[in-house]
């Protein structure tokens, strides 16, 4: 009985189709299914196809036969059940609607360029819209202090601020170390090692401290903003809020952006301090300048460098926050767009921060700060 | 003449932590029939479906599909069985990065020797058989309505001409006209392809329109099976409420107690 069953299974497993070609007539026997379709040789011209030996047929086989029949082949020996299947398939055969004619290459290029430019302008417009919405939400929150999302603000301050302290501090410390080491190495031939303090202090306070912090925060927080707002958008939570008379601008966007604006200057300060610490340590080891000497030299560095660094922080924070929120609110209803918008938000935020930094450089040079 | 059981569940026990879902559950699905599985929300209908297709691991009992115990099979044989069934999930579970046609082509890619043109043609045929217009082929799942996603999910489930079709609430969330069309579609496909259909549903109209047999899940097991007429005679309070309630009366044309 065991062998009997095994044999039955074997007959089920073997998917065989044999095709016999004899003076312009194809004799098919066995199973004509999707698995055996490749053994059905393509016939260039119309032939007679005899199906008397076919034991099993599925829609793929029937579809192939319908195609052959349409090409002029004659089907004979069709069983009634198979004929029924053939009828079902030919009834269901899709009717292709003609595709739109492709334009010429130059037109396609122009078309794509135009769309990209308009898309970029629309994107800038949307960023301006979200900036405006954030500010107006802030205005409303200040006029009605009871509606101010204080708990949420504290939570986001912890998420974007406190949690980012270790990574920011470690990174800046290492940057300070690198600057101290490289600076000492380059200045020594000129006997100007002592200026390594100025080098470290100016570059960290003015540029690197805040810029690198902003880039880290853009990667950390812009992606988190987009992912959290985007998944809420995807699950219609934001629509639900609107119908419950909750203002998403006030409840969701304002605390996130405001937390960034409050926290980024502090993070920038942390970054500057640990960068200076790294630089001081390196110049002690490398040049034998004691921390007291380092501090004395540091006191001679103009305070305006530190001010320039701190001024930039809230602007960078606003850029990161607005880009992250805009991307999150633009997520569609599929997971694909969530992923796309998240990475786009990070890239745009980092790019925009660097552009803004360049603009600040020009501005401060003109102002003379 | 005894009918061939394509799915045979015996003494199944499924448990999530302390939460018991199935205990001593027996169920058969015979070749060529449409079996409707009903039960209260949380009675484990979908879990049973997932257990049969191997997505949930049961604590005890045997599940045979097409004469084979799935859990004991080596990988290659298991894949061979998996290619003989089609599963349609509640919301279609389409791959969101692929168009509808590419979704249907996914199972077809496992077939050796199929040309691109054949695969494309077959996918378009299945999309059309599931009742979608031709232009839906190039749409992404996010561009489709819920009903269309279900149909696309059905097209993917039918891609390899399965012998068994598992449907998880195929008509939930459809408008009555769309749901009735779906019922007709399932019947047509069963007749044309000799499918065996395992249909989890809450829809009494679907039960009336398509199912040859109904299995009621309650108290962790299959409480009773039989035709719709048999169900009306069952004396269990939940079953009685289900098949004699106001909605049941409406679905059966106003008189469930006609016999």
What this model shows, in words?
- The complex is a heterodimer of chains A (369) and B (259).
- With 369 residues, chain A is of the alpha/beta class.
- Chain A has helices spanning 2-13, 59-70, 80-92, 105-143, 150-160, 165-187, 196-234, 237-243, 248-287, 291-300, 304-329, 335-367; strands spanning 17-22, 25-32, 48-57, 74-76.
- With 259 residues, chain B is an alpha/beta fold.
- In chain B, strands 6-7-8-3-9-10 form a 6-stranded mixed β-sheet.
- Chain B is globular and about 55 Å long.
- The interface between A and B is medium-sized, with 31 and 30 residues.
Number of helices of chain B: 10
Estimate the mean pLDDT confidence of chain A: 87
State the low-pLDDT regions of chain B, or none: 255-259
Shape of chain B: globular
Which structural class fits the helix and strand makeup of chain A?
alpha/beta
Measured between the Cα atoms of the first and last residue of chain A, the distance is 96 Å
Low-confidence segments of chain A, given as residue ranges, are: 1-13
How many structural domains are formed by the residues of chain A?
2
Order of helices and strands of chain B: EEEHEEHEHHHEHEHEEHHH
Biggest pleated sheet of chain B: 6 strands, mixed
Q: What portion of residues of chain B is helical?
A: 25-40%
Biggest β-sheet: strands ordered side by side in the sheet of chain B: 6-7-8-3-9-10
- Beta percentage of chain B is 15-25%
Order of helices and strands of chain A: HEEEHEHHHHHHHHHH
Which of globular, elongated, flat, extended, rod-shaped describes the shape of chain A?
Answer: elongated
């Amino acid at each position: 009985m065991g062998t009997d069953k095994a044999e039955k299974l074997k007959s089920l497993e073997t998917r065989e189709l044999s095709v016999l070609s004899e003076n312009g007539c194809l004799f098919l026997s066995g199973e004509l299914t999707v698995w055996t379709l490749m053994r059905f040789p393509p016939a260039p011209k119309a032939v007679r196809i005899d199906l008397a030996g076919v034991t099993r047929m599925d829609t793929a086989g029937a579809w192939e036969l319908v195609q052959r029949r349409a090409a002029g082949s004659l089907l004979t020996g069709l069983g009634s059940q198979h004929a029924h299947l053939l009828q079902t398939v030919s009834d269901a055969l899709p009717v292709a609607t003609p595709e739109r004619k492709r334009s010429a290459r130059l037109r396609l290029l122009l078309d794509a360029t135009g769309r990209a430019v308009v898309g970029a302008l629309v994107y800038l417009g949307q960023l301006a819209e979200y900036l405006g919405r954030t500010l107006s939400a802030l205005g409303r929150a200040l006029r009605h202090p009871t509606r101010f999302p204080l708990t949420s603000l504290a939570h986001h301050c912890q998420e974007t601020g406190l949690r980012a302290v270790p990574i920011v501090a470690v990174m800046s410390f290492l940057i300070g170390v690198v600057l101290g080491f490289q600076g000492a190495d380059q200045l020594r031939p000129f006997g100007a090692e002592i200026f390594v303090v100025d080098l470290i202090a100016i570059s960290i306070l003015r540029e690197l401290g805040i810029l690198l912090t902003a880039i880290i925060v853009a990667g950390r927080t812009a992606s988190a903003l987009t992912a959290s707002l985007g998944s809420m958008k995807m699950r219609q939570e934001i629509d639900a809020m609107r119908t419950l008379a909750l203002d998403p601008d006030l409840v969701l966007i304002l605390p996130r952006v405001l937390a960034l604006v409050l926290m980024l200057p502090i993070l920038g300060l942390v970054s500057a301090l640990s960068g200076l610490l790294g630089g001081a340590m390196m110049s002690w080891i490398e040049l034998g300048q004691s921390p007291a000497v380092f501090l004395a030299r540091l006191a001679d560095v103009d305070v305006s460098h530190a001010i320039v660094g701190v001024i930039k922080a809230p602007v960078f924070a606003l850029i990161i926050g607005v880009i992250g929120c805009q991307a999150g609110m633009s997520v569609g209803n599929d997971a694909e767009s969530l992923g796309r918008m998240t990475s786009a938000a990070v890239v745009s935020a980092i790019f925009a921060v660097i552009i803004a930094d360049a603009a600040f450089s020009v501005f401060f040079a003109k102002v003379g700060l | 003449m005894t009918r061939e059981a394509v799915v045979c569940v015996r003494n199944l026990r499924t448990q999530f932590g302390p939460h018991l879902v199935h205990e001593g559950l027996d169920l058969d699905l015979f070749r060529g029939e449409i079996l409707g599985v009903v039960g209260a929300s949380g009675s484990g209908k979908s879990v049973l479906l997932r257990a049969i297709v191997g997505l949930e691991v049961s604590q005890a009992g045997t599940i045979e599909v097409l004469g084979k115990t799935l859990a004991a099979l080596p990988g290659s044989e298991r894949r061979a069985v998996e290619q003989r069934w089609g599963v349609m999930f509640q919301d279609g579970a389409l791959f969101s990065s692929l168009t509808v046609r590419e979704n249907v082509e996914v199972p077809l890619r496992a077939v050796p020797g199929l040309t691109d043109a054949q695969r494309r043609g077959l996918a378009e045929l299945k999309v059309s058989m599931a009742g979608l217009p031709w232009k839906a082929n190039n749409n992404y799942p996010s561009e489709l309505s819920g009903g269309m996603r279900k149909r696309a999910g059905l097209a993917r489930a039918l891609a390899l001409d399965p012998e068994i079709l598992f449907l998880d609430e195929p008509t939930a969330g459809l408008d009555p006209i769309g749901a009735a069309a779906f019922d007709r579609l399932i019947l047509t496909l069963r007749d044309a392809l000799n499918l065996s259909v395992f249909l989890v549903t809450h829809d009494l109209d679907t039960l009336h329109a398509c199912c040859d047999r109904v299995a009621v899940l309650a108290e962790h097991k299959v409480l009773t099976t039989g035709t719709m007429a048999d169900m009306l005679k069952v004396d269990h309070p939940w079953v009685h409420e289900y098949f004699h309630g106001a909605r049941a009366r409406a679905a059966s044309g106003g008189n469930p107690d006609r016999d």
